[in-house]
C-alpha cells in the first residue's frame, strides 16, 4: 500500500478550461491545457491520496489510478465538485481555468453573419473554489492565481477574499512558462509565509507543491 504525505486522504482537484456555449457551434473559453492540474493529480496519487480529478475539456491523457469526472461548463464544474466534496474530502485544489462569465443565453440555432457588429450579453459564473471554501465542512483549500501584473498582491488578496489556506501564483506574462507550456514557475503563499518553486517541469513543480501542501495540511489537522 502507498505510504506518503497524503496516505488515506481524499483529494479533489479541478483542472483544465471550461467552455460556455454561445450557440451549437461556438463557445467562450480560456487558455488552459490542464497539464498543471493533471500533474497535481498524479503527484497526489503518488503521495498516497485517493484522487478525484474534475476536468474540463483537455487533450491530454488521464493519469492512471485517478478517478476522472469530465465536465464542460463552469456550472457543471461546480456541481461535480460539490458532489465530490459531499462524499468526503480532506484537500481541495482548484487549478481549473474557469470562465468568469457565460453568455446569458445559448442560442438554439447557429448565429448567422449579418451586421458588422454584434454584442454578446454575459453573466457571472459561480465560483467553484470560493463556494467550496465557504462550506461549513470546507476541506483544506488551495487555489491558483494566474496573473499578468502585481502577481503577489492579487494572489494574497484572492487567498483572503476566497478564504483559502494556500494560493499558488503564476505570472502568465513570462514567455515559455504557464499555460499550455510543459514548464512553470510558481510562488506559493499561505497566511504567514511564502515559497518559490521553479522554473521546472510541471510534474516536478506538482511533486514539490504536494509535499508543501502535505506539511500545511498536517499542521492544520494536527
Ligand atoms: O478569481 P480568479 O478566477 O482569478 O481565481 C482563480 C482561482 O479560482 C483558481 O484556483 C480557479 O480554479 C478558481 N476559480 C473557480 N471557479 C471560478 C473562477 C475561478 O474555481 N468560477
From TrEMBL:
Cofactor mode of binding and number, as noted: Binds 1 FMN per subunit.
Region span, Phosphopantothenate--cysteine ligase: 11-222
Domain DNA/pantothenate metabolism flavoprotein C-terminal: 6-213
GO biological process terms, semicolon-separated: coenzyme A biosynthetic process; pantothenate catabolic process
Pathway assignment: Cofactor biosynthesis; coenzyme A biosynthesis; CoA from (R)-pantothenate: step 2/5; Cofactor biosynthesis; coenzyme A biosynthesis; CoA from (R)-pantothenate: step 3/5
Gene Ontology CC: phosphopantothenoylcysteine decarboxylase complex
GO molecular-function terms, A-Z: FMN binding; metal ion binding; phosphopantothenate--cysteine ligase activity; phosphopantothenoylcysteine decarboxylase activity
Catalytic activity: N-[(R)-4-phosphopantothenoyl]-L-cysteine + H(+) = (R)-4'-phosphopantetheine + CO2; (R)-4'-phosphopantothenate + L-cysteine + CTP = N-[(R)-4-phosphopantothenoyl]-L-cysteine + CMP + diphosphate + H(+)
Binding site for CTP: 100, 110, 144, 158, 162
Keyword Flavoprotein among UniProt keywords: yes
Enzyme Commission number(s) of this protein: 4.1.1.36, 6.3.2.5
Cofactor(s) annotated in UniProt: FMN; Mg(2+)
Key words, A-Z: Decarboxylase, Flavoprotein, FMN, Ligase, Lyase, Magnesium, Metal-binding, Multifunctional enzyme
Superkingdom of this protein's organism: Bacteria
Family to which the UniProt record says this protein belongs: In the N-terminal section; belongs to the HFCD (homo-oligomeric flavin containing Cys decarboxylase) superfamily. In the C-terminal section; belongs to the PPC synthetase family.
Function: Catalyzes two sequential steps in the biosynthesis of coenzyme A. In the first step cysteine is conjugated to 4'-phosphopantothenate to form 4-phosphopantothenoylcysteine. In the second step the latter compound is decarboxylated to form 4'-phosphopantotheine. Catalyzes two steps in the biosynthesis of coenzyme A. In the first step cysteine is conjugated to 4'-phosphopantothenate to form 4-phosphopantothenoylcysteine, in the latter compound is decarboxylated to form 4'-phosphopantotheine.
Name of the protein in its database record: Coenzyme A biosynthesis bifunctional protein CoaBC
Organism of origin: Marinobacter similis
Amino acid at each position: 500500500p502507498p505510504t506518503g504525505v497524503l496516505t488515506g486522504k481524499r483529494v479533489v482537484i479541478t483542472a483544465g478550461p471550461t467552455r460556455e456555449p454561445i450557440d451549437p457551434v461556438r463557445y467562450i473559453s480560456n487558455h488552459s491545457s490542464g497539464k498543471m492540474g493533471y500533474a497535481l493529480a498524479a503527484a497526489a496519487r503518488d503521495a498516497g491520496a485517493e484522487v478525484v480529478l474534475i476536468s474540463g475539456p483537455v487533450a491530454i491523457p488521464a493519469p492512471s489510478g485517478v478517478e476522472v469526472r469530465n465536465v464542460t461548463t463552469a456550472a457543471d464544474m461546480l456541481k461535480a465538485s460539490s458532489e465530490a466534496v459531499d462524499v468526503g474530502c480532506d484537500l481541495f485544489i482548484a487549478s481549473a481555468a474557469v470562465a468568469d462569465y457565460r453568455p446569458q443565453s445559448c442560442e438554439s440555432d447557429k448565429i448567422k453573419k449579418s451586421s458588422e457588429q454584434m454584442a454578446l450579453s454575459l453573466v457571472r459564473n459561480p465560483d467553484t473554489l470560493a463556494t467550496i471554501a465557504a462550506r461549513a465542512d470546507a476541506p483544506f483549500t488551495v487555489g491558483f492565481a494566474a496573473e499578468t501584473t502585481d502577481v503577489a498582491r492579487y494572489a494574497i488578496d484572492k487567498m483572503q477574499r476566497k478564504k483559502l489556506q494556500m494560493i499558488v501564483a503564476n505570472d502568465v506574462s513570462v514567455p515559455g512558462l504557464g499555460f499550455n507550456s510543459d514548464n512553470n514557475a510558481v510562488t506559493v503563499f499561505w497566511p504567514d509565509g511564502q515559497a518559490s518553486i521553479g522554473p521546472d517541469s510541471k510534474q516536478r513543480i506538482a511533486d514539490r507543491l504536494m509535499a508543501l501542501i502535505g506539511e500545511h495540511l498536517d499542521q492544520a489537522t494536527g
